[in-house]
Amino acid sequence: MNAIELNIWTDLCGIDEVGEGEAKAFLIGPKRLCAVNDGQNFFVVDDLCTHGVAYLSEGYCDTEECVLECPLHGGLFDYRDGSAQGDPAEKPVRSYAVLVEGNRVKVKL
Ligand code: FES
After folding, report:
1. Residue-wise pLDDT tens digits, 46-101
2. Which Pfam families match (predicted)?
3. CATH class of residue range 3-108
4. What is the DSSP string of 56-87?
5. Closest ligand 1 atom, CA of 52?
6. What is the helix (H) or strand (E) element at residue 25, kind and residue range?
7. Which atom of ligand 1 is nearest to the CA of 70?
């Protein structure tokens, strides 16, 4: 393993910092990320909606449909891959690879 591979994971939060079925925002430098705990896995996407100025972490997290609902206009995003799933959202939000190591959630930025 080389030095670059050693540094790809950035610590985001503890596994107990995001409740089951919840989404929560975290800041890493200039990035505001939305972490989702669906009860089995953690997922991380950009928190800012691509339709307007609203944070997905402040909307509804539906772990049955695997979507985040934007609190401003109700756009839907699949938190597993960031894809837009419902009007007026058209552009995806960026999604990030996640690694759970021990009790920490790490993200590849
Ligand atoms: S700002 Fe998110 S759907 Fe409009």
Report:
1. 999 999 999 999 999 999 999 999 999 999 999 999 999 989 999 999 999 999 99
2. Rieske (PF00355)
3. mainly beta
4. GGGSEEETTTTEEE-TTT--EEETTT--EEET
5. 1
6. strand 22-28
7. 2
